[in-house]
Amino acid sequence: MTRTEPPPTRRRRSKGWREREELLAKELAEVRAERDELVVAERVLERVSEQLANERASAAPAPGQVGGRAVMLVPHRTPDMGETMLPPDYQRILATVRQAAGPVMARQVGDALGIDVSVRSQLEPLRGKLVGLVDRSWLRKLPDGRFTTRQ
Length: 151
Hints:
The chain is mainly alpha-helical. Helices cover 58% and strands 8% of the residues. The strands form two sheets. Strands 1-2 form a two-stranded antiparallel sheet. β3 (139-141) and β4 form a beta hairpin. α3 crosses α4.
């Protein structure tokens, strides 16, 4: 019995399938490598998200200490928060600005509260409280330095 050679088309076809198999194996390896990179990136994203959430939670205002005494910080304004959350001084300042006919300067607020505005050492703490209310979204400061309520 003589051995017969496979027809040339069969050899070409099997060579083509081997080449195709090698190409697919290479593509599969690349896809697996990319998948592994995505898994690592997802883990990193989860960790960064957790860190940001922890930082935001710890950034919430908390009572502080000045000169060994506990002081209440002005809380950031939220839609469901009322003015009663503010210390009494800040409530009076907010009411004074609200009662004004329009935007007011710190001196005008001081006059309405009975503060001697001619003495800078008494006016500057008031200005600091006004700016604190601005920083925490209770008031708005206009470019010309006047204060008004948030709409």
